[in-house]
Structures are given as structure tokens and as C-alpha cells.
Specification:
GO terms for molecular function: N-acetyl-gamma-glutamyl-phosphate reductase activity; NAD binding. InterPro entries: AGPR, AGPR_dimerisation_dom, AGPR_type-2, NAD(P)-bd_dom_sf, Semialdehyde_DH_NAD-bd. It is a single chain. The protein is α/β, with parallel strands linked by helices. The chain folds into two domains: about 120 residues, NAD(P)-binding Rossmann-like Domain (Rossmann fold, 3-Layer(aba) Sandwich); about 170 residues, Dihydrodipicolinate Reductase, domain 2, CATH 3.30.360.10. It contains nine helices and 13 strands. Strands 8-9-7-10-13-12-11 form a seven-stranded mixed sheet. Helix 1 links the parallel strand 1 and strand 2. It starts with a strand and ends in a 10-residue tail after the last helix. The mean pLDDT is about 95.
Length: about 325
């Protein structure tokens, strides 16, 4: 017997479709749908939002802003766009941050994090929050993602049998250094300046690795070793079911870390590598899982009082 009515507004998009697919086999959930002809009908969508126990907005930023101005304040909504991630009246949906799961559970408006931001914040926030890393240290970040992160248009480009040769090689983008995830990366870590951010897309469907290089000289006296930094992460993420912190120096036998290693799963792994002078902090996860639809379902679970990992692949 269904206990919850869920509406996905924007079900034809990559994230909306994944959420719909995840929930469609759950006997406790009734998915509310609209006929094709009504999917862009504002009044019909608002009626479903009012009927639902929770709504996922999987829309472009402007479309999300438009419907939120009209949606009932009591409606529980998870938005997957970038429109509200730093809005003060919204709760940021990275459940693993200190006290955040409790805030999400009580919220009517939750902004699901961006994929690149999820990796960066997961690595940097604990260090700044616990005083291991100064908030004003100038950081850089590299993030390698599968092409599904670019949505339906990019997926079509990569899967086109007549695609251009450039799609065969990794491609750096965000070359104006103004990527749309930067505001949340700064706001949710507490750092004084946004990082120098280099996102890269490559020819694999899903998965990602986010890396932040930091010299030991940037760390406070208690964190002058890789093992000490790992211990901080272990304490911070203790009892958080979706995050695995690997022992210091853990690496695959071939010495390489594949970005698609968690494709199809909803958890996130943290690795710490170093030499005598520098650390590389690395988060690996699926851009469509913990970086998108998996995170959205995790937020939904908390908001509805369900088990946090219900419907997730760990």
C-alpha cells in the first residue's frame, strides 16, 4: 500500500528520469504523473505539487524560480537546479555535513547539491570546520566527470556515431572560471574565496573524481601528516552511511584511480594521498548518484521520515 505521493516535475530530463525510475518500483510510493499535453501546464503542475507529499523539481533554473513563487509554502519540495543552493530560506541538501540531516528532515525547501560541489565540499568543509585548514587559504580543484553530467544534449553528442574527433579526448570546460557550482562550493565550505576550478568531461557515461591538492604548510600543527587528515575525515563521517573514508595511502594495485569506479552507485569514497610536502584529497562517486538523483532521494527519505538509505544502491 502506497504511503507517499511523489511528483517529479521535469521527468523527461536526465535527473528527473533517474528519480522516476528509482521510485517506480517502490511499493510505498505512488508517483503522480501528468499527461504529455499537461506537462508544461503551470496550473496542472501546481495542482500536483499541492497533492504530493513531496515534489522534485528537475527543471532549468528560471523554470524552478517561476513555479516556486506560486507553490504553497507548506509543500515539501526538493529542487535539483542551481537556483536555490545558496538561498538563505532553503536548506542545502548535503546530508553529511554537521547538523545538516536534521535540518533537511525539518525542511519544506531543500536544494540538492551540484555534482562537482558535492565532491569539493565533502573534502574541504570538514577541514575548515575543524580548524585544520585556514578559511582564507587559496584552493584549487580539478574535477573529472562522465558526459552524462551535461544532460540530454551532451549525452546525444557523445553517443552520436558520427561525432567529431574531439569527443574522443578529455575536454576542459568552464574556461571563464565562473562555473555555476562555485557559489555553493564557497558558501558551504566557509572558505573566503572560491577555488580555482577546472572541470573536465571525458568519454565515459557516468562517474567522477574531484581532487583538491593542498601543501602540508597550509594545515595547522595537528594535521601535518596524511594519517592525521584521514583520522579527521573518519571522525567527521562516522556513522554516515553513504561516505567511506579509505585508510591513508589506499590506492588500487595499478596505482590509478578510475573515475567510473562507483558508476551506478550512490555512495562516495574519500582518499588521501601525499608525499613529504603535499596532499591530494580525492572524492570519487557517481555524478548521477550521489551527485544528482541519489542525493535527491536521500533528501526525500529524510524529509519523509524514511530510512536514509531507502532506495539507494550502496
Amino acid at each position: 500500500m502506497a504511503q507517499y505521493k511523489i511528483f517529479v516535475d521535469g521527468v523527461v530530463g536526465t535527473t528527473g528520469l533517474r528519480i522516476h525510475e528509482r521510485l517506480s518500483g517502490d511499493p510505498t510510493i505512488q508517483l503522480l504523473t501528468l499527461p504529455e499535453a499537461e506537462r508544461k501546464d503551470l496550473n496542472a503542475r501546481l495542482a500536483k505539487i499541492s497533492e504530493a507529499d513531496l515534489t522534485f523539481l528537475c527543471l532549468p533554473d528560471q523554470a524552478s524560480k517561476e513555479i516556486i513563487t506560486l507553490a504553497p509554502p507548506t509543500a515539501r519540495i526538493c529542487d535539483t537546479s542551481t537556483a536555490f543552493r545558496t538561498a538563505p530560506q532553503w536548506v542545502y541538501g548535503l546530508c553529511e555535513l554537521t547538523g545538516q540531516a536534521e535540518k533537511i528532515a525539518q525542511a519544506n525547501r531543500v536544494a540538492v547539491p551540484g555534482c562537482h560541489a558535492t565532491g569539493f565540499i565533502s573534502l574541504v568543509r570538514p577541514l575548515v570546520e575543524k580548524g585544520a585548514l585556514a578559511a582564507d587559504y587559496p584552493l584549487s580543484c580539478h574535477s573529472l566527470t562522465g558526459y552524462s553530467g551535461g544532460g540530454k544534449a551532451m549525452i546525444a553528442d557523445y553517443q552520436n556515431p558520427d561525432r567529431a574527433n574531439e569527443f574522443n579526448a578529455p575536454r576542459i570546460y568552464g574556461l571563464t572560471l565562473s562555473h555555476k557550482h562555485l557559489p555553493e562550493m564557497k558558501a558551504m565550505t566557509g572558505i573566503a574565496h572560491a577555488p580555482i576550478f577546472s572541470p573536465i568531461v571525458a568519454d565515459f557515461y557516468s562517474g567522477m573524481i574531484v581532487s583538491v591538492p593542498v601543501p602540508f604548510s597550509a594545515f595547522s600543527a595537528d594535521y601535518q601528516s596524511g594519517s592525521a587528515v584521514v583520522q579527521l575525515f573518519e571522525k567527521y563521517y562516522a556513522n554516515r552511511p553513504l561516505v567511506t573514508v579509505h585508510s591513508y595511502g589506499t590506492s588500487p594495485e595499478n596505482g590509478m584511480l578510475a573515475a567510473n569506479g562507483l558508476a551506478g552507485r550512490d555512495n562516495l569514497e574519500i582518499f588521501v594521498f601525499s608525499n613529504a610536502d603535499h596532499l591530494v584529497l580525492t572524492a570519487r562517486f557517481d555524478n548521477l548518484g550521489k551527485g544528482a538523483s541519489g542525493a535527491a532521494v536521500q533528501c526525500m527519505n529524510l524529509m519523509l521520515g524514511r530510512a536514509e538509505t531507502a532506495g539507494l544502491v550502496l
